[in-house]
Amino acid sequence: MDSIEEILGELPLPPYVTAEDVGFAIKAVTVHAAEQWPDGQRCRNDRAVHPCRLYRWGRRVLDQRGLTDRQVQVLIAEQEAPQP
Questions:
Q1: To which H or E segment does residue 22 belong?
Q2: Distance of CA 62 to the CA centre of its chain
Q3: 3-state class of 9 per DSSP?
Q4: Which of 9, 10, 17, 34 is 20 to 30 A from 51 (CA-CA)?
């Protein structure tokens, strides 16, 4: 964890995870995915040590919603699919 993340802490979860929250979480996990750098994995969006705050928040929301890793992968694939 970067020093700024130690100060800021974790992002709070919504009290009830809605379908809209799941959409935001999938976007966070997709945009803040890991990217390999010479000093290790970093967030491809903000270059923080991976997993960054938004990636962790997204995964926690998806876990709270009860989605399996397979279901998350399907939602990510749908998010990344070209739109007609």
A1: helix 19-31
A2: 9
A3: coil
A4: 17
- Which residue in this structure is represented by tokens 């130690």? 6
Strands (E) in 1-84, as ranges, are: 34-37, 40-43
pTM beyond 0.70, yes or no:
yes
Per-residue pLDDT of the chain (84 residues; tens, 9 = 90+): 566 777 788 899 999 999 999 999 999 999 999 999 999 999 999 899 999 999 999 999 999 999 999 999 999 998 887 777
Query: Are the C-beta atoms of 64 and 72 separated by less than 8 Å?
Result: no
In DSSP notation, 29-72 reads: HHHT-EEEETTEEEETTT-PBSS-HHHHHHHHHHHHHT--HHHH
Nearest-angstrom CA–CA distance, 58 and 38: 26
